Structures are given as structure tokens and as C-alpha cells.
Amino acid sequence: MVKVILPELGEGIKEATICYWHASEGKSVKRDEDLVEIATDKATFNVPAPSSGVIRKIFHKDGDIVKVGGLIAEIDEKD
Amino acid sequence: MKSLKIIDLGYSSYKASYQIQKKILNEIIKDESGDTLIMAEHPNVITLGRKGGADHIYATTRFLDAKGIEVLEVDRGGDVTIHGPGQLVTYPLFNLRRHKKDILFFIKRLEEVLEKTVRHYGLVKDGTIDLTGLWVGGKKVAFIGIGISHWATYHGTSLNVNNDLKYFSIIKPCGIDGLRVSSLKEMLNKEISMDEIKDVIKEKYCEVFEFDNTSEREKNAVLAKKEAS
After folding, report:
1. CB pairs under 8 A between A and B
2. Cβ contacts of residue B138 below 8 Å, gap of 6+?
3. How far apart are CA B24 and CA B224, in angstroms?
4. Which domains does chain B have, with CATH numbers?
5. CA of B109 vs chain A CAs: smallest distance (Å)
6. What is the Cα–Cα distance from B45 to B12, expressed in whole angstroms?
7. CB of B29 less than 8 A from some CB of A
8. Tens digit of pLDDT for each residue in B151-202?
9. Cβ atoms of B2 and B212 closer than 8 Å
């Protein structure tokens, strides 16, 4: 299982809001395709899928505030 | 040598400009294109960033329809804003892997570009207001809202140059209560040449982001206009 975490966004940004999941649980994703759009005060940021596979679990829904380094999803590479 | 490609779309619809942005953004992500600066003026259009709710628009649908003002939800950060003729919009499509992978650092550099641009006209940034954008004498004259994909940036800045400020009264700009806006025209009491200020802002982008030169302006402008049509 590959963990998807909220990436480092630069100095001074400790958290971001989940805006929009491009895929849902049970769906296949390809490595590097946009997985989820997150937002800080003045920027949106698309988090890419770290590997190809099936999304097993999404831990945060739209509108949730997540800390940098926080677990947001898990991808099963076997499927 | 770091080169910045310039595309001047002139007067172009928001949607057409967005399509061109996304096309070039994808090229930048695939490393098929270098850093590019798009400049444009848009017909009146309200855009809602990811923070912006429709409740920040005061005008009725009937008013907006009568004036031909579209309302678009867009994938940039920030709240509601309005664009219109006489406002200079710039879309820096930069690969931050080649600059610095740091969102706030990039936003601060955009503020610096805007600050240096208005300083060219003798206006000084209001340093007492610690909010994103550019403020002069307690009034906001420039706005910033960006998007990032694979550390390549899109969306960007808008600077009130000669635009009609009354349109800002139909929204709550940036979602801030009591926000006062101004323009270079209002502050300087004269119309500013859009061609001239485009040259100034282009030069400031080069200075702040350390580009050695700009390129292919004419070629790209023709290409972009063709794609937009």
C-alpha cells in the first residue's frame, strides 16, 4: 500500500484545505496524474498520484484542513 | 541563459486565455516549453477562486446578464475578483523546479514585480497592510491568485491600470469587508499607456525572476491569437 501524504509546499505553509478529489475510492489512477486539488490562502496545488494503482482509502473529504505531511489517501499498487 | 517567452494576447476573453494557459502549462510540465508570461486584458468577467462563495457577488443575475458579465468558478486560490478592460492581467507560467519549490516565495516575488511596476510610475507600496496583493495609500491596486500543477504555475496577477472601478462595487473583492480599490489612472490622474506598462511589467518580471532576456514575442502572439480564435 502506498501512502499519499500532503506534500511540503514551502516555508511558512503548515496546512492546506482539500478542495477536490479528481478520483474516488476504488478507482484506478496512474502515477503522476492529478489526484487531489488542495488550496492555501492564495494558491491551489494539484497533488499527483505517487504511484499507479487503485485508491483504497481517502482519509479527508472536500473542505477538510490537513497538516503538511498528513496522510490523505492510500493506493494499492497490486490491482 | 534564462529566457522568458512573452505572449501578448491583447484584448482576449477569460475563457480563451485560460485554454491557452492550460495548453502551455501542460507543455511546461512535460518540459516541452520554457517559462512563459501571458499578458491580457479581459472583457468584464467575475471569477471565483477556491475560497470565494457566490455570496460575495452583490449584483443580481439580471444586472449581470444585462451587462454581459459572466461569473466563472476557476481553479485558482483566493476569493472573488473582477476583470475588465483597462486592467492588466498577467499569467506567469513558470516551472518552479527551476526557481524555488515554495508557494509563498513565489507569491512574494509576484508582489515584488507589481511593486516595482507601480514604482516606475512614482507610486509607493503601502507597507502597513500585511495582506497578499499590492496596496497603495490604503487601497488595493493589484491582486494575486495562482494555481500550481507539478510545480508549474498558472493564473497570476491583475493590476488596475485604467479600468472602471465602479464594477468592484458589485462584488466583495477578495472577500474582505470594506476593501477599497484604486487604479494607476485614479492615483496619477491620467490614463496610462497599456503598451508601455506591459513593457514595464515584462522588464520587472525579468529582474525579479532573474531572466536574461525575453523571446519570441511576435511569433507567439500571433500563434496565441490564432489559437484563441
Report:
1. 63
2. B126, B128, B129, B180
3. 10
4. 3-228 (3.30.930.10)
5. 14
6. 11
7. no
8. 999 999 999 999 999 999 999 988 888 899 999 999 999 999 999 999 999 9
9. yes
A positions 9-48 inside 8 Å of B (CB): 9-13, 17, 19, 32, 34, 37, 39-46, 48
Per the CB < 8 A criterion, the answer to whether B92 and B145 are in contact is no
Comparing CA positions, the residue from A54, A1, A60, A61 lying closest to residue A26 is A54
Per-residue pLDDT of B79-102, as tens digits, reads: 999 999 999 999 999 999 999 999
Question: How large is the ipTM?
Answer: 0.93
Give which of B64, B68, B66, B41 is closest to B54, Cα–Cα. Answer: B64
Cell of A21: 478529489
**pLDDT of the residue at B3:** 92
Sign of the four-CA dihedral B12, B13, B16, B19: positive
So where are chain A's domains?
Answer: 2-76
Assigned C-alpha cell, A37: 486539488
What cell does A27 get?
Answer: 478507482
Q: Position A69: which residue type?
A: G
Asked if residue B141 lies in contact with residue B121, where contact means CB atoms within 8 angstroms, the answer is no
Mean pLDDT of chain B: 92
Which of B37, B39, B174, B197 is labelled catalytic? B174
- Does residue B216 register a pLDDT over 70? no
* B25: contact with A, CB 8 A cutoff: no
The rounded distance, in Å, linking the Cα atoms of B229 and B224 is: 9
Q: Is B174 a known active-site residue?
A: yes
**All three cell numbers of B74:** 476557476
Burial (Cβ within 10 Å: 0-12, 13-18, ≥19) of residue A59 = middle
- Joined together, the cell numbers standing for residue B171 give 462584488
CATH 2.160.10.10, applies to A2-76: no
